[in-house]
Amino acid sequence: AQFPIVGIGASAGGLDPFKRLFAAMPADTGAGFVLVPHLDPRHESLMVDLLSKCTSMPVREVVDGIEMQPNHVYVIPPGAHLT
After folding, report:
1. 10-residue stretch averages of pLDDT, the chain, 83 residues long
2. What's the angle, vertex CA 7, arms to CA 71 and CA 45, rounded to 5?
3. DSSP string, 50-64
4. Secondary structure class of 20 (helix, strand, coil)
5. DSSP-H helix ranges across 12-53
6. Would you tell me how many other CB atoms lie within 10 Å of the CB of residue 34?
7. How many whole angstroms separate alpha carbon 74 and alpha carbon 58?
8. What does the pLDDT read at residue 63?
9. Which terminus of the chain is more solvent-facing, meaning fewer CB atoms within 10 Å of its CB: N or C?
């Protein structure tokens, strides 16, 4: 099935806008969301856990070979390149 994929980038400080966006967004838009925040590659990111508290959509870290699904949020890990 085809569905829209929405990519959203943010520089440092993007966590709060991400939280506000997903807190206000319905969980059944039919789209998949890919978040590409600027993260320090030397530290583990807590963004998945923090965003999970703001939306009923599943929030997952992107891993190689992940199959995107609608109504899910995917967060790129620190130090990764997404293609």
Report:
1. 92 90 96 89 83 96 94 91 81
2. 85
3. HHHTT-SS-EEE--T
4. helix
5. 15-24, 47-52
6. 17
7. 8
8. 92
9. C
